[in-house]
Amino acid sequence: MSINGEQIRPGMxxxxxxxxxxxxxxxxxxxxxxxxRDLEPPRVLPFTAVREVANGVVxxxxxxxxxxxxxxxxxxxxxxxxxxxxxxxxxxxGSDRETIGQxxxxxxxxxxxxxxxxxxxxxxxxxxxxxxxDRLILDVPSTQxxxxxxPVV
Length: 153
Fold this sequence. Notes:
Layout: E1 13-15, E2 21-28, E3 32-37, E4 40-46, E5 50-54, E6 57-60, H1 64-69, H2 79-83, E7 91-93, E8 99-107, E9 110-114, E10 121-124, E11 128-132, E12 135-138
Parallel strand pairs: 1-6, 7-12
Antiparallel strand pairs: 1-2, 2-3, 3-4, 5-6, 7-8, 8-9, 9-10, 11-12
């Protein structure tokens, strides 16, 4: 389901993928919306940054701290979001910084993890801890990946 300006309304609470409050919707534009945040400058995010809108709450694909840490507003509304999105070819590491594989593709709110000698699996964005250049760091150690119940591609 694609998100549009009819679903997002001023006053709605905005939360990150980690369910931590980011702020409230102040204004809604044609393809983006403005979030008013306590003690931080307002932030413009594109509708593509939204995972879902339900029960008066806008849930982002980003964790709350990622919205706070994203670069300052620019004329390119998508720039802050693009910086922290996984992209094909990125190395994927566990929280222990051991290499697991690489991002094969991005689909909605998950990416395909290609692992040498193992089946490719879908990994939800919720498990992304950080993106450092061309490396994606997960919230779990590399040794836990095989124990997780990820859907196989």
